[in-house]
Amino acid sequence: MAEPFYITTAISYPNGKPHIGHAYEAIAADVIARFQRQMGRDVRFQTGTDEHGLKMAQKARELGLEPKQLADQMSQHFIDMCDGLNVSYDVFQRTTEPRHHNASQELWRRMEASGDLYLDRYEGWYSVRDEAYYDESELIAGEGGDKLSPQGTPVEWTVEESWFFRLSAYQDKLVALLENEDFVRPESRRNEMLAFVRSGLRDLSISRTSFDWGVKVPGSDNHVMYVWVDALTNYLTGLGFPDESGDFARYWPCNLHLIGKDITRFHTVYWPAFLMSAGIALPRHVFSHGFLLNRGQKESKSLGNVTDPMGLAERFGVDSLRYFLMREVAFGQDGSYSVEAIVARCNAELANSFGNLAQRTLSQIFKNCDGYLPEITEHAAEDFALFELVDEAATKHLPESFAALEFSVGLEHWMAAIFACNQYVDAQAPWTLRKTDPARMQTVLATLFISIAQLAVAAIPVMPDSAAKLLDQMGIAPELRSYAAIQSHWYSPLAESGFRLSQPVGVFPRLEAPVEDA
Ligand code: ME8
Predict the structure, then answer these.
(1) How would DSSP label each residue in 254-303?
(2) If 0-12 CB within 10 Å is exposed, 13-18 middle and 19+ buried, where does residue 255 land?
(3) In terms of C-beta density within 10 A (0-12 exposed, 13-18 middle, 19 or more buried), how is residue 474 classed?
(4) Rounded to whole angstroms, what are the CA distances from 326 to 110, 317, 461?
């Protein structure tokens, strides 16, 4: 049986519509999920929405809605975003579902049973926006001298009765966990978390009495759980926890929690401590990606630069947007996007390079070979050189880079191979061989056909629809669409099967940057 691979995204706050950061994370997770499926893994992919907490309650009040109504309306936008961006999730977990309350209460009971929870009073600087308490020493001064959280959000002095989690008891275990280089990446985040844990951990306030929009604390009906306790539990809920047979037995521990850099502490300090306390195995890896900026600036309502990711997808095509995001930004670092950058990159690399290569090759086969796949007589040294280069890029360098979550590096190898193919076409000029050496023309077109098929298969995780449209036209069967299968000798059987190309249809349109954005 295939080896399991469980990947999750963070669950988004549905207190507004999805923004580009949500789209970025969902797309990156989908690329990983599709890549792992192509590598033969049994993938389980979960995403969802984080619907409790003060932020949701306040937003609902502002709009004159019940929090559940707001959650229902808004979470649908996140489902639509995932579907619209071709995100192949298996489970969309909403935290207002009864089974999630049940899972969160079970986790709580287990932490309580291990003696890690106690009731006390909490006083501190609380940021509603971050849903977190901060130490005085962590605060920064705002422009008017007011106190702000390290994220720059307002804080209020707050006093309440609260359940506490003995986080301090886990310091040594957390240091040991974070010393393992593999647990959290990139390295800069790991170092940040190690420094945070080494500086000493205070117990964590994990319940609230000041509002009731959350999961009830078992046995303390006037308390709801701190939203992060229930939010993190979603990763277990989706597998059927507390039932530990079935999906839970198959997919836990999670292979990868993919999150943004701002929530690394919750996933690499608090979450492992909760799990250790409850006697549940820890996730294997956490990766914190960077932030996506709009022309170098954080998007915000006040700057009026918030972009609807679905608008970009409609305008430029889902696969163009997916390609741009994976190619443009070194994964793990912050990156910037703009309409011009999307248009420039997609036109140069997809329309003019890969699209043009495929279109001119298939058109020549259609016209000059009557659509039948060209015959190979004898390969020249240049053909072997191209095969070697394309094969290495598409079935070795790209998969290795993707396995290491270095998407932009993998796609750079992919582009370099396409560049080599285009140079080969220009040098071989098959259109002039038609009259002078038709046998050589056929061999050149076959060499290109084989290379394009490999490159299209390599692009599947990033551009699933476009790659499929191209491979369908080429008669490449679904069982050939893996890195291993596309390396073997599939060309002759396909050519001998009598397969015939139809008039080729381009799959990478040229994008136009509308004048108002120039
Ligand atoms: O943090 N660029 O939800 P969220 C890239 N509910 N990624 C970004 C981003 C940007 N500009 N802005 C946000 C939450 N993100 C919690 C998570 S998990 C148990 C609970 C990322 O809607 C962010 O880092 O604020 C996070 O990974 C995800 O989007 C959802 O953010």
Answers:
(1) PSEEEEEGGGHHIIIIIHHHHHHHHT-PPPS-EEEE--EEETTB---TTT
(2) buried
(3) buried
(4) 40, 15, 10
Residues for the chain: how many in total?
518
Q: How far is the CA of 204 from the centre of ligand 1 (A)?
A: 22
Give distance in angstroms: CA of 262 to centre of ligand 1.
7
CA–CA dist 195, 200 (Å, integer):
9
CA distances from 502 to 76, 324, 367, 509 (A): 40, 30, 10, 19
Q: Are the C-beta atoms of residues 287 and 183 closer than 8 Å to each other?
A: no
Asked whether the predicted pLDDT for residue 54 surpasses 90, the reply is no
* Among the listed residues 230, 201, 188, the one whose alpha carbon sits nearest the alpha carbon of residue 135: 201
Whether the pLDDT of residue 412 is over 60: the answer is: yes
Question: Of the residues 8, 11, 127, which should be mutated to test ligand 1's pocket, given the most ligand atoms within 8 Å of the CB?
Answer: 11
Output the residue whose Cα is nearest ligand 1's atom 3. Answer: 12
pLDDT of residue 304: 79
DSSP 64: T
pLDDT tens column, 158-209: 888 999 999 999 999 999 999 999 999 999 999 999 999 999 999 999 999 9
Q: How far is the CA of 25 from the centre of ligand 1 (A)?
A: 8
Residues framing ligand 1 (Cβ under 6 A): 10-13, 21-22, 24-25, 50, 231-232, 234, 259-260, 262-263, 291-292
Domains of the chain, start order: 338-496 (1.10.730.10)
Q: What is the pLDDT of residues 245-267, one digit of tens each?
A: 999 999 999 999 999 999 999 99
Residue with tokens 């259609």: 366
pTM for this entry: 0.94
Give the closest residue (by CA) to ligand 1 atom 4.
Answer: 12
Atom 26 of ligand 1, nearest CA residue: 260
pLDDT score recorded for residue 515: 65
| Closest C-alpha residue for ligand 1 atom 13 | 21
Question: Tokens 């060209």 label which residue?
Answer: 374
